[in-house]
Specification:
This protein is 0% helix and 24% strand. The protein is mostly beta strands. The protein folds into two domains: 94 residues, Pectate Lyase C-like; 89 residues, 3 Solenoid (Pectate Lyase C-like), CATH 2.160.20. The strands form two sheets. Strands 1, 2, 3, 4, 5, 6, 7, 9, 11 and 12 form a ten-stranded parallel β-sheet that branches. Strands 8-10 form a two-stranded parallel sheet.
Length: 191
């Protein structure tokens, strides 16, 4: 099946809840202030695209491809990124709400998470080597059997990462938030 090809297009103030985004390949397209909530983006390919102030909450993404995609100031609630096409998957997040999302078993090394709320996200068995979490709130996010080697958490907070269950070799942390590595030891830390 030949897919439609869309290049260098700009979509602004568009609601895709009732209007379906055409299945195809979108390259170097910008989506600004678009509402994709509860929509279906399955089998769509996004390459070098930017989503700005978009709502993608509860969007279905079966076999959706994200290659070098940027999400800026977007609301991403309850997304299952593990359902996406994993081939060459790469994206960055800046000033986003990434709540209740699952990145389970994804290989997304060198991903940038910047100034974002990442609440109750699931990173179980994900590969996040050399990823950067810059000024992110990671409250109740799950890291279990996650590869965090050389990841940067120095400016992030509210994380809980068990060093016995995750690979954290050469990962970067800072005081006082490093206490997020000690929660599993059931110890008392006082000033």
């Amino acid at each position: 099946m030949i897919k439609e090809f869309f290049q260098d297009l700009k979509y602004e103030n568009t609601g895709f809840r009732d209007l379906t985004l055409e299945t195809g390949e979108y390259e170097n397209c910008t989506f600004n202030n678009c509402d994709f909530s509860d929509s279906d983006l399955s089998d769509i390919i996004f390459i070098d695209c930017i989503f700005i102030q978009c709502n993608l909450s509860l969007t279905k993404m079966t076999d959706t491809s994200f290659k070098n995609v940027k999400f800026i100031s977007c609301k991403l609630l309850g997304l299952h990124f593990e359902d996406c096409n994993k081939l060459l998957m790469s994206f960055d997040f800046e000033s986003c709400s990434i709540d209740l999302c699952s990145f389970n078993k994804l290989k997304i090394n060198k991903t940038l998470f910047k100034n974002s709320k990442i609440i109750e996200a699931d990173f179980t068995e994900a590969e996040l080597k050399e990823s950067k979490f810059i000024s992110c709130d990671l409250r109740k996010s799950v890291f279990k059997n996650t590869n965090l080697e050389s990841a940067d958490f120095r400016t992030s907070f509210n994380y809980s990462i068990d060093p016995n269950l995750n690979r954290i070799r050469k990962a970067k942390f800072s005081l006082p938030e490093i206490t997020g590595l000690l929660g599993s030891f059931d110890i008392v830390i006082e000033k």
